[in-house]
Amino acid sequence: MKESYYGRLKQVDYNSKVDLYVEEIKNNGFTIIEGLLDEDELLQYRKKIDAIYKIQETEFGKDRLHSIQETNVCRMPLKYDDYFINIATKDTVLNIVEKFLGRYFILNLQNAIINTPKEEHHQSAWHRDLPYQNFVISNPIAINALFCIDDFSAKTGGTLVVPYTHKMEVLPSDEYIQKNSLTVHAKAGSVVIFDSMLFHKAGYNTSDIIRRAVNHIYSVPIMKQFYDFPKALEGKFSDNVFLGQLLGYTSQTPLDDKQWRENRAKNI
Ligand SMILES: O=C(O)CCC(=O)C(=O)O
Prior knowledge:
Layout: H1 17-28, E1 30-33, H2 39-60, H3 62-67, E2 73-75, H4 77-80, H5 84-88, H6 91-101, E3 106-115, E4 142-148, E5 160-161, H7 174-180, E6 182-183, E7 191-195, E8 200-201, E9 211-219, H8 229-233, H9 241-246, H10 257-267
Antiparallel strand pairs: 1-7, 2-3, 3-9, 4-7, 4-9, 5-6, 5-8
The structure holds 2-oxoglutaric acid.
């Protein structure tokens, strides 16, 4: 339905739903899109996240993970199981990321969060996903896609966000946060796409179910990757032009002057 106005107003164009998602991310810092993963995919991701985390827990040690506040964070699942390339390359998400970052962007991080009932999670402290940055930028340099593998609600400890904080240089007061934060309510299979500078945190899970999520940061290639995907994946996926770029194979730091020039010579 068309709204009515008076006065000679300029208005943001709307041609497709993507335009609305982009407008929401620009203004509020986040948007929610439903129905990106089906029931079968959700079952697979739940099983795989738990299994990969078990491997990491055994390898690193449960107590050691606890001592560095790493309990229930399943890091870099893509290194352990190719299936996780699918969730990192959903067209709907990539189209939106491209609207902000242009065509050349990379996957900076992929982590799964396991928010278990009645336990405090390390991600339950307010943060930006580009941490320690007390500045704002007119166009984002990184965008997150946080997939809901289980239902997000206040009861399951769904993510809390403080709208508009991607535009705030300094963390608002506790009073402001308490008054203005809101919980993301979204069905399993949805994705929350947000400006990586938005203040957010995992909620406290008072339900009886585990709330899992898979978080991604896509960034411009001038930003160092959180994990060195090219080294960790040892060439895997690099034959595909798009994946080669996304995983950072084509934006690795050259060793020296000679390698920089050899790279340039190949690209001219
Ligand atoms: O689990 C959540 O809801 C939020 C996760 C989070 O804050 C993060 O991975 O940076």
